[in-house]
């Protein structure tokens, strides 16, 4: 009778709400942070600052994978059961790591990291060569977004900004390219650990450790070097576009080599070979 009853738990609701709150808190950092840098920094320094911002954003998942690797070595019910009675090891397919521990550590870290944001000034003194005429507020004023500010302050600005952004063909093309790149990158990070577990017999902990150590740091280094190159050669929009196209083309060619990597399937009686 116990086997017929499906297990039910509402803990997923807490995970959903936690991720929702995390997304609400983290989302403004990138768009508003970049605008903050673009408004109050010298024009030639902006690429380096933005590159540093994205590099740190890449280091976060790297440390997340390493933390996940550490937590996966701990039994899921750590602190609630006597670990001396556990007879299986992390190499056993039945092993379940303490996946929930990473959420608690990340929550405390996020809370501590958010405290300094409360002390940032609303406005900074602009340098002599700052982008004085390129602030987001100035763009909205030039497009007439402030006309209906008293009637529909939010919708008026949002619709005008959205129309202006989507009407920019270069930005819209860049947005589509970014969607494709991140979709492939997320798929890569999602399924490669499982591929390493199945094909190479690695534990979940070892797979997360290798992914965090080998996949994400090169991306962060590449972003940082890209910002330095743009600053050194003072690339224009067209120059930066050609540079991005060249690097993306070489990345695509190198990525084709993934099709050459593979392993034979496991020998499973009744599936890949006959019972005889």
UniProtKB/TrEMBL annotation:
Compartments where located: Cell membrane; Membrane
A Gene Ontology molecular function term of the record: bile acid transmembrane transporter activity
Main location as per UniProt: membrane
Transmembrane annotation, as ranges: 12-34, 46-76, 96-120, 170-189, 209-230, 242-261
Biological process, per Gene Ontology: monoatomic ion transport; sodium-independent organic anion transport
Cross-referenced Pfam families: OATP
Keyword Disulfide bond applies: yes
GO cellular component labels: basolateral plasma membrane
Topology within the bilayer: Multi-pass membrane protein
Keywords from the named record: Disulfide bond, Ion transport, Membrane, Transmembrane, Transmembrane helix, Transport
Family as reported in the entry's similarity comment: Belongs to the organo anion transporter (TC 2.A.60) family.
Name of the protein: Solute carrier organic anion transporter family member
